[in-house]
Protein 1
Amino acid sequence: MQHRLAENGNSSPTIAVYPGTFDPITNGHIDIIKRGLNLFDKIIITVAINSQKTPLFSLEERMQLIEQSFNGMNGRIAVDYTDGLIVDYALQQKAATIIRGLRAISDFDYEFQLALMNRRLQRKVETVFLMTGFRWIYISSTSIKDAAKCQGNITGLVPEHVEKALKEKFS
């Protein structure tokens, strides 16, 4: 495990928050998280409750699907939720970093604005952008749900337990 030297001279684990709707978690999300574990000791996958979205899966279902995706990684991965500002949540969790994934230029514009606002709100929290792995660049939770709804083949785009949950939702 990497440790950074804290301001008080003590070594402390590096913690990052990876927020999202995760409706559902995809292999693209998992790729970002696994690569983030190369940079941080612990990642808190945070289901952000967005009143402007109507998710297919309940909050509890999304959290359970995420937890099932990371069995055996206790201590390095935590799953939580928030309905407040991510920067405030990060500070409460002693996380100095927010991880965001980028797929395309269209993501960058939105994410850049969000990162600037977060920086304005809380200077102690940085945003780190990770490019989605090339094989996941075209997928999103929305496109996967659309394909699953029409009985399209989503094998390999989400973990098996998520594929099963989607099929159950749309059967």
Protein 2
Amino acid sequence: MQKDLKNNIPNFLIVGAAKSGTTTVSYYLERHDEVFMATPKEPKHFSYNYAKYTGPGDVAFTQKKATKTLKDYFKLFDKSQKFKCIGEASVDNLYYHDKVIPDIKKHLGDPKIIILLRHPVDRAISAYSHLVRDDRENLTFEEALEIENSRLEKGYEFIWGYKQCGFYHDQVKSYIDSFSNVKICFFEDLVSSPQETINEITDFLSISRIPIDKDLRLNISGKPKNKIINSLISRDTILRRSLARLVGKDLAIRIKSTIQKNNLEKIEISSQLKADLNACFLEDYKKLEELLDEDLAHWVKKY
């Protein structure tokens, strides 16, 4: 079954990378008058069949929430007719690039592609901290890196690939080679120049520019100071749903962000471990620089 490519299906995708600002970009696009974003933010339809979801929390946090059939995937966009841009943000599509791209092309044609990249070491630590926050990861970062490959071989979902997800060159090249409009943005620019970065994305989508809140932080990672508070605001609980109904979705998101900011603390990683991990990516940096014609010396030198 292939739906009519002209009518209310995604004409742009945010495909990754995870923990690189995709939630923030999705947040602003969802509030744009000309944009329809899927709910949930990450339907994960195209990648659903490529993970066994054997890691702690993989079923509850990912598999159960995935949009499993093509019919249900298209249903997510039933109310998108009046919007110029229709999109979703399944960030695992970058990691599973070689598997999902043929299906994306078959069912969506040639959508615009948005990719956000982040320093691979910082991204890895953030992904690790994300799983610590969600009470899924109980190893140290160093221990987790040592058994990463075996976890992935056992069918843990992609987010457990702290290091593997950071080899961007082949992932990005697959999209550049397969689609006619691909926009690359960097997390570091989103942090240092958020308005300018969002402007670049809205320009890429050929829609009007929108003002942003430079102080808003979403999907924060870290070690919870209070696990009960973290569980109440991080998971899809009755309390969260009730709060959203009571104060509205936007204010509920801001309240959650504020609580997370105060309840999560940064996980410290040794300088030596960060340097050792950074060394693993040096060859990939070179290839990515050539592919994007982008100077990544600041990535090389950071650790």
